[in-house]
Amino acid sequence: MFLQVLYEGLTMGSIYALLAMGIALVWGVMNILSFSQGEFMMVAMYLTFFFNKLIGWDPILSMPFVIVAMFLFGLCTYKLIIARALRGPILSQRLVTFALGLVLINGMTLLAGGQTKSITGLMFYGDIGLSFLTVSKQKLLLIITSLIVTGLLFFFMNKTKMGKAIRATSQDKEAAGLVGINTEIAYMVTFGICAAIAGAAGCAMTYYYYFMPGIGTNFMIFGFIAVCMGGFGSIGGAFIGGLIMGVIDLFAGTYLSVSYKYLAVSVIFMLIVTFRPKGLFGR
Amino acid sequence: MKKKALAALLCMALTTGLVAGCAGQPESSGSTSQRSSEQPSGNKTPETVKIGLMVSLTGNGVQAGEECRALAEIFEDIINNKHEGVSLPFAEEEGLPNLGGAKVKFVVGDQSMPDIALNEAERLITQEKVIGFCGNFSSATTKTVMVPAEKYRCIVLSEGTSNTLNQAGYKYYGRSFPGDDLFIQNTFEYLDDMNKTQNAGIKKIALVSEDSEFGTNIGKVEMAAAEKFGYEVVENISYSSIATNVTSEVLRLKKANPDAVIMSSYATDALLFMSTFKEQNYFPKMLFGQRGGFMASDFTQNLGTDSDYVLTTSRWNSDMNNKAAQTIAKLFKDKTGITLLGDTLTSVWDGVVLAALANQAGSTDADAIRAVMAEGLQLDPADDPFALEGYKYAENGQNEHGNAIIVQYKDMVLSTVYPKAGASRETLYPAKAWNER
User: In this complex, do B59 and A214 lie within 8 Å of one another by their Cβ atoms?
Assistant: First the structure.
């Protein structure tokens, strides 16, 4: 039972981690709260659904295409909306992604209807039965996706020229501009990556979740708590924060009471921000 | 020169407006602030009787809302145009005969959230001048809609099931079908019947309820009923309907191993529970839903045959041996391609009942309609898809003849299994484990 709960907790945690990493990245670089991260994930779920219905592709096959599509969607969103809002007052900058989220929810309702959707006939389905643990293949995909995305993100940010430019921009935008970094491009790519991460998350989540236009909203609050736990601006912190949240959620719900699981998450969150106001890995 | 011309033009426009306003006064129903003592459409025979159809335009209830709107269009057509040989109210006439052939129009309002519902209800009363409301209300949205309804004297027929609605002392409120108490009594009588007739051996039960007003009230009534009927509650779980995972809930159920699990959930969380049940390779001998998500069209469309063996309380089912029921089920299927569900039909049927009440009263005045509600609606039973014994509303708003049934899924089709008199087959019990299906 203990190992089962731990596995389920890590699975949930990996979903929160995927959401949290996008939020942490955008905040760290651009000082913008990405309230629309859950809705980006929802758009990715519908893209995956359309690929499945129109071409018959399994979510795993469509994942690279969804990630690229979401990256481009992120670039366009930045260019058309975010870049302009960044020139406005601070409140507009903070709330523009919130408005964007509402537009995406209602737009998807108009486009695809309010009916709950799901993808059937999955490539990986069922359980891997171990004597001490039942591993759901659908959920395993979520964990693997989370680990790969985290690894790729770390590689990109630390080993590539663009990644280093983004990090430099996040540390001091003016100084980065003075040494020849195109900070506008850095911002745009950051937002694109944020949407692409949501793309990977959304695609993997269709393996397990039923979805409708409002699904992203339910996950967002947990994504934000994970970021606060791990530390705003820290991608690794967001990942760890997500995992911690998932594990607390499952252990409290299973061993204490289901009614206490969100209470437990909130208490741990308050303890972390009390003793480490910037989060576990925040600077 | 231009400024002078503009000023003259404005003066003329204002004067014309004032004159038109004064001339129109006898016909207008007055300002919003004056409406508290005035019925929206008055006693005069209107050309169109507008009925507010409150549905969710955003959030989890969008699909149910779309289905209600489609059904409302069907009923509008049946009432407003002549349809010979159709067994539904006003099909043989054009409009409402006692109101000079007035046409019926459903006007849609949003009830996604309680506060939105309040503002929308006020808008529909003061601007659209609806004579009353029906829709897929929850208990919470019913309560907020009742605020302007009581203020402006406007009838609300709502199927929110909370018992608190009957205890609030509303004057213009009615519920045509049972509340939580009767649905739950029916549930436990059914469990007793299963133990007696099919030797089901159900002793231990688990209650799983989402934590808004809908689930919380049901949970409380179920706890009391379990004690009254002598069932042991081995797990009582209250969870959030916006939960992103219900694994710990399912693990607890698996550990408690009840004979029957009785759930009150909305659509998305009901589906999440079902997928988690399957993932954890767990399914109780009996899974019983209290309508909500278990009566949504999303349920079978997403689960397919994984919905097999799930039972739920209902107010209506398409297998009812009744010509009106078969007619409306077919019309809906032809229009939408979706099987008509009891919750959708009740939501819109209340609007038809409201039109029939106004017709019988010969007035759209709320007090006149309320008087007819108290004395009883004279509706030809052959035209009633629910085949209720009648529609006579007590002082607390409850229809004395409201009835409940129990239905079960098999091969994506709902069949009535209780009460025995209306059952189309026996209950499939115990439910098969996932690996045996």
Answer: yes
Q: What is the pTM for the complete model shown? A: 0.80
ipTM: 0.82
- The three state secondary structure string of chain A is CHHHHHHHHHHHHHHHHHHHHHHHHHHHHHCCCCCCHHHHHHHHHHHHHHHHHHHCCCHHHHHHHHHHHHHHHHHHHHHHHHHHHCCCCHHHHHHHHHHHHHHHHHHHHHHHCCCCECCCCCCCCCEEECCCCEEEHHHHHHHHHHHHHHHHHHHHHHHCHHHHHHHHHHHCHHHHHHCCCCHHHHHHHHHHHHHHHHHHHHHHHCCCCCECCCHHHHHHHHHHHHHHHHCCCCHHHHHHHHHHHHHHHHHHHHHHCHHHHHHHHHHHHHHHHHHCCCCCCCC
Report residue A185 as tokens.
């491009």
The CA-based dihedral angle spanning residues A73, A76, A81, A83, taken in that order and rounded to the nearest 10 degrees: 120
Q: Which residues of A touch B245 (CB under 8 A)?
A: 8, 12, 249-250
Residue type, B378: Q
User: Is the backbone peptide bond immediately before B430 cis, with ω within 30 degrees of 0?
Assistant: yes
Give the pLDDT confidence of A64-91 residue by residue, as tens digits: 999 999 999 999 999 999 999 988 888 8
B109, amino acid identity: G
Contact yes or no for B251 and A215 at CB 8 A: no
Query: Is residue B285 a contact partner of residue B429, using CB atoms and an 8 Å limit?
Result: yes
A115 to B301: CB separation less than 8 angstroms, yes or no: yes
Question: pLDDT of A166-202, one tens digit each?
Answer: 999 988 888 999 999 999 999 999 999 999 999 999 9
A153 CA: distance to closest CA in chain B (Å): 25
Question: ∠ at Cα B30 (B25, B33), nearest 5°?
Answer: 150
